[in-house]
Amino acid sequence: MMRAFATFAFVFLGACQSVPKPRAPMRPEALFKFVRPKIVELMTDDRTKGLKDLRKYAGLGDKDFNFKRGFCTGFIVDEDVVLTAHHCVQNFVEVVTGFVIKTSDGKQFAVKRLLGVDLAHDVAVLEVKGLKKYGKLDLAVKAPIGAKVYTVGNVLGEGIAIRDGLISSVSDDPDKPELKFLRYSAAASPGNSGGPLVDARGDVVALVFASANRAENNNIGALSTDLRKILKRFAENRKTKTVSLAGDDHHYFQPAHAYRMLGIPVPGPWTRDPEVVKSLAALKFSVKFPLGLEPFVAASANGANQAATEARALAGKLAAKRIDPKKLCSCERTWEEAATDKMPLVIPSQVTRDFEYLELDASARRPVPTVAFVTPPADLGASTDLIASIFAAAGLGDVSALLEAQGSGAADVEARLVPTRAETPKRLRLAATDAFFSSVPRKARMRLSSVAYSSWLFGKTGAKPAQGWATLRQPASAELLGAIGGDFGLSFESSHPLVRPKARREFYIERLDEKLAKDEVKDPLGRTWTVFHTTMFDEMTVESYCLPLPQGWSCLVSGSPATDAALLKVARENTVRYTLAKLLVQPAFWDVDSLLDFAKSGHAATDPLMRDFEISKTSLKLKTLGIELSWPAGLAPSAVRLSTGLQRTGKTTRWVALGAEGVVSDKDGPKLCGMGVELPGTDAVALLRLEKRLAGTGGTPAPGRLHRTPLPKGVSAYGWCAPLAEPYVKKKSVRVPRYERLAAYPITARAL
Predict the structure, then answer these.
(1) Is 194 left (phi over 0), alpha (psi -120 to 50) or beta?
(2) Least buried of 18, 151, 318, 638, by fewest C-beta within 10 Å?
(3) Which stretch of DSSP H or E encloses residue 31?
């Protein structure tokens, strides 16, 4: 019968059956002898990497495998045609290719083509050459209620067996009353799927495809009258024909699994609305038959992907209408869509308390770089009192504690920061970016839904190695494999169909020992990600999408149930589109030397948050704005955190360099100092509002708190410093900016 999520396989048909000549009823022993040569098993290929993985990681030996075991059944209806259950060869998205057809004498045959499929009746028609000597089964003309019948098939994958029962009824499908199925009481077990239900004469009255629960014995099969029509359509006429495949027709269709196989994330709130879910499940595509197995893999992957992409787009429009944005996020934004007329400047930054804390190195003069990712801001709806920037333009630290704007901050997803001294990769933070609105309550904020299925983030930073910065920017295979395993290893179960029942168990892999293949992909933002990947246990593919950083690397590690090359290609394209394009590396304190080398190597030119800068040890050039900012002589920081904003002007959206900040030390101790610009019409949030708040006048800023320089076109440049103090909760090497003691920083600014 059906195996977990049904493993899949395909075959094709050759000639229409004529009405069989009646034979005398046979006793079970004679019936089994007559039928058995015409029964085949669908066998998993025993030469796959998955079995090697089980030997290596689960400690299984030859005695733990049953290499004679099949996962589904089929039966010969013509000299080159085999019928089996469709769910045995395809789960709507993924196609099984690593299987063979095993005959009663133990010989194995390859499937030449898939002649056609009928999802509604759960039938696949396979073309398999060389079966003439085994004979064929005829299709019964009628199936009277109460007649004695027998299932002949693979029982739990442990061999072909015959079991008896009665025809119970011809029943309507509960979801589609126009479909009729045969109900019978003969036992049917996982492994029986695709096998025949025969009468005492050895004629097929139904194809077995579903069993009842263990408490009952009321199983279901496709009627012989329907099988005859299917054979006529696909086996008698083998000319090219287009067949529609709809998820609604697939008996074991699971929309969530389909989207996961394709690497397409679905926002969680969408799944709470039944109409949106219904829209997501409306997947349908067409395939031309006959078709080889490998081409069918590609056709299914591409067809399902197109259908899911279109269904997801429609579901998104429906969600936007049906889901109240003040309660549940019904939208998804790209970075380009984040800047609007009401929010013309968006500055990505980590909106958590951790961003207020700076960890200094042993000298207490240089910030330790940390790595985090940020996603586009959620849709906060309309707001008349809009603060136009997420963070202080020019990299002022998180001042949410000092501002009265409601709704600031964001949820922490999966997080651990990565200090320079880290010897092994650590999990990273994924922070959703929000905007400061003075009148939007916290409950109205909406976060982007899950970034990807079964994914997590890792990264590593470090000081300059003797070989140069470039050697620090590509993770070694050992580092990645260790990161994938994490602190506690990976949990698996030895549930491969060839593993004997007593050998099946859960096991842990403390450290992976795999050879990682390497590819490259480019995301819509122009960045090139290196993809390290390997397939394990014939059931999953582990992929690490890695970006170089000025002083290290960061990776998104994703586990996918897809293993076939064509399906993996589609899933990877969707990962790039829906996930990677939304991830920006959170600005961190990078060594100026590393930034210079990063720019020289060409990496900065593809990073949206860096490409608008021209950096030197003494100054920053803001290319789009045509402004040069210079650090005060003798007070230039050795490590800086860049500030970039997404600016909307009319219908144009662009990333604009705004400034930077760094740690500067003098006789009074370390200070966080910054320089940047305020753009006209944006009311650059934190600096002016903070200055007014500190002045306590509600209007006039306190003199000397900011060093201002007027520039053309209404732009102002400013410089500031805030002393770094130990937090209330003592933590070694950690400092907190004291913004209430903000002071001027004498930078130089000029228009280019």
Answers:
(1) left
(2) 18
(3) helix 28-35
Report how far apart the first and last C-alpha atoms of the chain are (Å, whole number). 74
Structure tokens at 515: 């050879």
**Secondary structure of residue 229 in the 3-state scheme:** helix
Phi, psi at 195, each rounded to 5°: -85, 175
Gap between the Cα atoms of 261 and 302, Å rounded: 12
Mean pLDDT of residues grouped by 10 in the chain (752 residues)?
33 42 86 96 82 90 84 95 94 87 93 95 96 95 92 84 92 84 90 93 92 62 95 95 92 86 84 86 95 93 95 88 62 75 70 59 73 66 26 29 25 26 39 29 25 60 88 86 71 80 84 90 93 88 91 86 90 91 86 95 93 95 95 91 86 90 85 85 51 51 71 87 73 71 88 92
* Placement of tokens 């003199």 in the chain: 703
Token pair, residue 564, equals 């076939």
- The CA distance from 242 to 233, in Å, is 11
Sequence-separated (6 or more) residues with CB below 8 Å from residue 720: 396, 673, 674, 675, 687, 705, 706, 707, 742, 743, 744, 745
Euclidean distance between CA atoms 150 and 148, whole angstroms: 7
Two tokens, residue 47 = 């030469």
Helix or strand or coil: residue 670? strand
**Beta-ladder partners of 619:** 630
Residue 271, φ and ψ in degrees, nearest 5: -75, -5
- Work out the burial of residue 320: count CB atoms within 10 Å of its CB; fewer than 13 is exposed, 13-18 middle, 19 or more buried: middle
Question: Contact at 8 Å (CB) between 660 and 394?
Answer: yes
What is each CA distance from 336 to 266, 388, 408, 459, 575, in whole angstroms? 20, 16, 21, 26, 18
DSSP structure class, residue 610: T
> What are residue 337's phi and psi, to 5 degrees?
-85, -10
How many residues make up the chain in this entry?
Answer: 752
Q: Do residues 607 and 527 lie in contact, with contact meaning Cβ atoms separated by under 8 Å? A: yes
Tell which residue, 580, 585, 315, 375, has the closest CA to residue 459.
585
What is the identity of the amino acid at 35? V
Q: Which two tokens stand for residue 683?
A: 């009311």
Alpha-helix runs per DSSP H in 553-678: 565-578, 592-600
Q: Tokens 């109205």 label which residue?
A: 444
Q: Burial code of 142-172, b = ≥16 C-beta within 10 A, e = fewer?
A: ebeeeeebbbbbbbebeebbbbebebbeeee
